[in-house]
Design brief:
Chain A: It is found in: Cell membrane. The complex is a heterotrimer of chains A (about 525), B (about 240) and C (about 375). Chain B is of the alpha/beta class and about 240 residues long. Helices cover about 35% and strands about 25% of the residues of chain B. By secondary structure, chain C is mainly α. In chain C, about 70% of the residues lie in helices and about 0% in strands. The chains are: A alpha+beta (about 525), B alpha/beta (about 240), C mainly alpha (about 375).
């Protein structure tokens, strides 16, 4: 509030009383009056009006596109429509009608006024009431590196109170100063400011100083510092990409870790259960688009339970219909579930067609956030949060609930569990259903970053098996560690060798790793394992 | 006294669980030895260590005083002359009874030798002889999957003998056998002792008594008592382990 | 010798012999071509699949190693032959370069990569189509079997192996034509690949290779080594305690099988006229498994019949109602594992044994 007051006071101080306290309409109407000096004052007043339409007016004025009607003095733009010249009100965009050549006269501008307008447009951003607009204008000024703007930047800097904007103003000023013929002391300060910024833009802003005989040493030191800073931010960015990939891998693999790890069942149809989750999301969004468009922001929240239930139900059906007849025959289970995966794939292809289906990001998942020189997109952030939440929920289910206890009991000693009254068949179905449901959840997340097509599942199946095999079956923490270490390793290799080769190297590394630790990172050791 | 099998200070743990804790055991050539002990006493782990299936964390295991058994694998120990019979009879189910025995016969075990191996009349005679010994001569062409539990036990014993081992490790041979068969097994093992060294792990006290040999009692991965069956069953600690708590 | 050809092998060989005589004669010698040229080509392709199935049956059916990467050995054999066929094109390519294949000219290669050297000689390519898959199987198997990776873990890493190879071969930098693979072949040993006589010749060659593969596999199965393999399959631990170094046996049979698969691939490439990275896809390798499972694992002949049957069904169904093919194939996987774990030949054998009541059929001498 105080800041606003101060800004207003500055404006009041700077302007003659005649142009104060007027609306944009009045200011614009007064444009044709007086000489070019008067017009320059009006331009400044328009720039400071804070009205969002001001920019457009000033740009049109600079281009010589403004006219006034002789009849009533309204300021218009005249557009060519076929054979006619049609006047539009410059502010309201209202179509006034066809005008003759004599009815409208140009508002005249000369080069001096054009410069004033350009400076005013620059200041307009720099002194806007909204800090976000000022920040944007400051960044633009930084990239422009125009010594002409030094005065405007100084003025803006003096009036600035927001610390974040102040920093960018200083950097923009520094960039401009280095290209000007300012004194050595000013340039020293400028180099320091740029070194503190530390990104690629700062590096190019510094380049004029590198050729300066006096400042070259300092500039070189600043350049080196910036390059180090860029490198470490690059590392952080890669780490983020790796974590993000890891969260996707974990989502895809964790359901598999339950069926493979806990039950010892190879479910080759796991990828297709992920696909079912993704298509559920698609259906939910279609329904919302067609019937309740205002609910779109909630589409994922609705899809999550539905996908869990749908995929879970398919999972239970697979277990009851096929898998339960094959316990103790893991290779046969592998083949039968592969057959099921083919059937599910073709079913989806027949129903929804072979092409990608459009699944949209709700608003809260689009866009990105910058931390330093690192960009993180919101959908990736949410997927990481979602993955961690799913993991935590699963741990809770397995460790703290009766069904989790029964699952672990059946895993460890089926016969004993049965003899204390646990319905092992039911527990098997529930465990398989849980794994399948989690695959469905993964599908909701993957629909946000990948193509929703009948091949969605196939593209993840090998990767998810690698995660489980690497992490070690029988332990959810294994899948957790496996997913994140593979994700990070993959993304760290990518800049060196490219995406495909990185993936190949990871596969080869896992194949070799399995030789050393045939049962993965978090394997249960002991006599019982291989008996 | 020269020990054919020598274990000294052997230790082995699995994920923190100490299965063997300082086990020492000396078995003379030609000796018949029974090893008893409650569940979890480390009997199976001990046999896994002797046959090279499991490596000890600590301790020495020597064969005939010069071969380090901690460095061999299962096949290696078998080639040295250590034969092992599992608790649950394991035979090769889809092969015929005679092929099971044929596979166990003492021959060259290398890949190319087996690829080009021809069955000699001597081998055929030996197979017939062994089948008579384990009373499976009438079943020789049947797939071994069709045999009864007791017959499978006998077939496995037959396979063990076909290997011509110097040491036989026999895990609960009497399980699933009729009384008559049990006694016949005990008799067979007594006959084998002398020409072979025999170590029998057993729960069945009647059977151990019938073996009439030196008994080692294992408890919590170490030797609790050693001596004749009467001697160890008079030991109060042994009684407590078996009956107490 | 009599043992080598038992009754079912005998039936199969007779049927194969009739086909080998009838198909080329019907195509080449009879007026009006009652057997169309594409039928000859397709039949040759099926026989390659049959040989591939026999190779897989040898490791899976006899030794219990479920390889989900046998397609890789097949594809490597195919590439080895494809490389020879590319070199044979010579100046007849689009760019007319006497040494470099078209795709290399297109990708501005200066000279032939070292691993393409020697492939201008047929004998070298023929050797490589066995040695390369064999070497890969040896290295992979040596690592995997020595550290006792088995069961589903082994299946999964064989799948990872073929997947990694598929990704590699998709890369242009690998020097194998990338995405498009190798194609536009002109002739083999001077015979025009488009001519009916060459196709008939390749068909007969595939039949000969299949018979040879069956005989080698059967001989291995009947030897003492074959019994050790069955021992490993049924009771790996028991076999170790009998003194057999299991890893050596597995490695032997894995390598033999990979070489056999390589030969099948080498015969496949000239008949279909193209080899591309898609052949490495994990789905292809799993499909081989269902051929064997359907025919009956551990029967060799059954594997060959299963391959021919499924491949024929695929050709017919995809031409007739393409949507049904994956449903049918998927259903086949489920049906066979649930209701016919021993495959068609197993079922036949069981009912035969029931009929006779006396003793199960075992190596009956004709």
């Amino acid at each position: 509030m105080l800041r606003l007051l101060r800004r207003t006071l500055t404006i009041l101080f700077l302007l003659p009383a005649s142009v104060m306290a007027q609306g944009l309409e009045d200011l614009v109407t007064s444009l044709p009056d007086g000489d070019f000096d008067d017009r320059a004052q009006v331009v400044n007043a328009i720039a400071l009006s804070g009205d969002p339409r001001a920019l457009n007016v000033l740009e049109l004025l600079s281009d010589g596109q403004l006219s006034y009607l002789r009849e009533d003095g309204r300021i218009v733009t005249v557009r060519d429509e076929g054979d006619d010249d049609v006047a539009y009100d410059v502010l309201s965009e209202e179509r006034i009608g066809v005008v003759g050549r004599r009815d409208a006269r140009d508002v005249r501008v000369n080069n001096g006024l054009r410069r004033d307008i350009a400076a005013a447009i620059g200041r307009m951003g720099l002194q806007n009431v909204d800090p976000a607009v000022r920040l944007d204008a400051a960044e633009r000024a930084f990239r422009a590196r125009d010594p002409e703007q030094i005065d405007a930047l100084r003025a803006a800097l003096a009036a600035e109170t927001d610390p974040e904007v102040t920093t960018v103003f200083e950097q923009a000023l520094a960039a401009a100063v280095l290209r000007s013929d300012a004194g050595e002391a000013d340039k020293r300060i400028a180099i320091a400011a740029l070194a503190a910024r530390g990104d690629r833009d700062a590096l190019s802003a510094l380049s004029p100083a590198l050729t300066d005989p006096v400042l070259a040493g300092e500039a070189q030191a600043a350049t080196d510092k910036i390059e180090r800073s860029i490198a470490s931010w690059g590392l952080a960015q890669n780490l983020w990409y790796g974590i993000s990939l890891g969260s996707v891998l974990m989502l895809a693999a964790i359901g598999l870790a339950i069926t493979f790890g806990v039950m010892g069942v190879i479910n080759m149809a796991h990828g297709e259960l992920v696909m079912i989750g993704a298509y559920t999301t698609y259906l939910v969004q279609e329904t919302i688009r067609n019937s309740f468009p205002e609910m779109f922001g909630w589409s994922l929240a609705i899809a999550v339970p539905l996908a869990f239930v749908t995929a879970g139900a398919v999972g239970v059906a697979i277990e009851r219909g096929v898998v339960r007849y094959l316990y103790g025959r893991p290779l046969e289970t592998l083949l039968a579930t592969w057959g099921i995966s083919l059937i599910l794939q073709q079913a989806v292809r027949s129903i929804f067609g072979p092409n990608n289906r459009e699944v949209g990001n709700p608003e809260w998942m689009s866009g990105a956030v910058d931390i330093g020189q690192m960009a993180m997109t919101w959908n990736r952030i949410w997927i990481l949060v979602f993955a961690l939440a799913v993991f935590a929920a699963l741990m809770l289910v397995l460790k703290r609930t009766p069904i989790g206890l029964q699952m672990r009991a059946v895993t460890q000693n089926r016969a004993m569990a049965a003899s204390v009254g646990i319905r092992t068949g039911w527990v098997d179905a529930m465990t398989f259903g849980l794994g399948a449901g989690v695959a469905g959840l993964a599908g909701v997340a993957l629909s946000q970053i990948d193509n929703v097509s009948p091949n969605l599942g196939q593209s993840y199946i090998v990767d998810s098996f690698m995660v489980v095999v690497f992490g070690g079956a029988g332990n959810l923490w294994g899948a957790f560690a496996g997913a994140f270490s593979l994700g990070i390793a993959n993304k760290f290799m990518e800049p060196w060798v490219g995406a495909v080769l990185a993936k190949i190297l990871i596969l080869v590394a896992i194949i070799l790793f399995i030789q050393k630790r045939p049962r993965g990172l978090f394997a249960l050791k002991g006599r019982a394992v291989d008996s | 006294m020269t020990a054919q099998l020598y274990l000294d200070g052997v230790e082995r743990s699995f994920d923190g669980f100490k299965a063997i804790t300082g086990l020492s055991l000396h078995v003379r050539k030609g000796e018949l030895r029974a090893i008893i002990g409650p569940n979890g006493a480390g009997k199976t782990t001990m046999m896994d260590i002797i046959t090279g299936k499991t490596r000890p964390d600590k301790g020495e295991v020597f064969w005939n005083e010069k071969v380090d058994l901690t460095k061999t694998d299962e096949a290696g120990s078998a080639r040295l002359g250590i034969g092992r019979k599992f608790q649950k009879p394991t035979v090769i189910e889809s092969l015929s009874v005679e092929d099971n025995i044929g596979l166990a016969l003492k021959t060259d075990r290398s890949v190319f030798a087996t690829l080009f191996a021809r069955q000699t009349p001597a081998h055929a005679d030996r197979i017939t002889e062994l089948l008579h010994l384990v009373r499976l001569a009438d079943e020789r062409a049947r797939p071994s999957a069709d045999l009864s539990h007791g017959q499978k036990q006998w077939l496995e014993i037959g396979m063990l003998l076909a290997q011509e081992p110097e040491l036989l490790l026999v895990d609960e041979p009497a399980a699933g056998m009729t009384d008559d068969e049990t006694m016949r097994t005990a008799e067979l093992l007594r006959d084998l002792a002398g020409t072979h060294t025999v170590i029998v792990v057993e729960h069945d006290m009647e059977f151990v008594r019938a073996l009439n040999c030196k008994v080692t009692v294992l408890h919590q991965g170490r030797v609790l008592a050693e001596g004749s069956i009467d001697h160890v069953s008079a030991n109060p600690e042994v009684v407590e382990v078996y009956l107490g708590r | 010798m009599t043992k080598l050809i038992d009754r079912r092998m005998g039936f199969f060989l007779i049927a194969l012999f009739i086909a080998v005589v009838a198909i080329p004669v019907g195509n080449l010698a009879i007026e009006g071509k009652p057997v169309a040229s594409y039928v000859v080509q397709l039949s040759g392709k099926y026989l390659c699949y049959a040989l591939l199935a026999v190779a897989l049956d040898l490791v899976w059916g006899y030794c219990g190693i479920l390889s989900l990467g046998h397609g890789a050995f097949f594809a490597l054999g195919g590439y080895a032959m494809g490389m020879h066929l590319m070199r044979e094109i010579g100046t007849r390519g689009v760019y007319g370069d006497p040494v470099l294949p078209d795709f290399m000219v297109f990708l501005s290669y200066e000279q032939l990569p070292w691993f393409w050297l020697g492939f201008d000689q047929f004998w070298f390519a023929a050797l490589m189509c066995m040695l390369v898959p064999g070497a890969l199987a040896f290295v992979f198997g040596w690592f995997a079997f020595r550290s006792r990776v088995s069961g589903v873990y082994l299946s999964i890493i064989t799948q990872a192996m073929t997947y990694a190879l598929m990704l590699s071969f998709f890369r242009n930098e690998m020097g194998f034509g990338g995405n498009n693979g190798l194609t536009d072949f002109k002739d083999v040993l001077g015979f025009d690949l488009q001519s009916d006589a060459t196709r008939a010749g390749l068909f007969i060659a595939s039949a000969v290779a299949l018979v040879a593969g069956l005989m080698i596999a059967k001989a291995i199965a009947l030897s003492q080594l074959g019994k050790v393999l069955i021992g490993i399959r049924d009771a790996e631990s028991r076999t170790r305690f009998l003194g057999y170094r299991v890893e050596g046996y597995k490695l032997f049979v894995f390598v033999v099988s990979a070489m056999m698969a390589g030969v099948a691939g080498a015969l496949y490439t000239p008949q279909v006229g193209i080899i591309n990275p898609g052949e490495f896809s994990p789905a292809n390798s799993i499909e081989i498994v269902i051929w064997v499972a359907l025919g009956g694992r551990g029967t060799l002949v059954g594997a060959a019949i299963g391959a021919i049957f499924v491949a024929l069904a695929k050709t017919l169904l995809t031409g007739w109602i393409p949507e049904m093919w994956l449903f049918a194939l998927g259903g086949l996987f489920v049906f066979v594992t649930l209701f016919m774990p021993r495959g068609v030949l197993g079922v036949i054998e069981e009912s035969w044994a029931k009929l006779r009541r006396t003793e199960p059929v075992k190596e009956v001498t004709p």
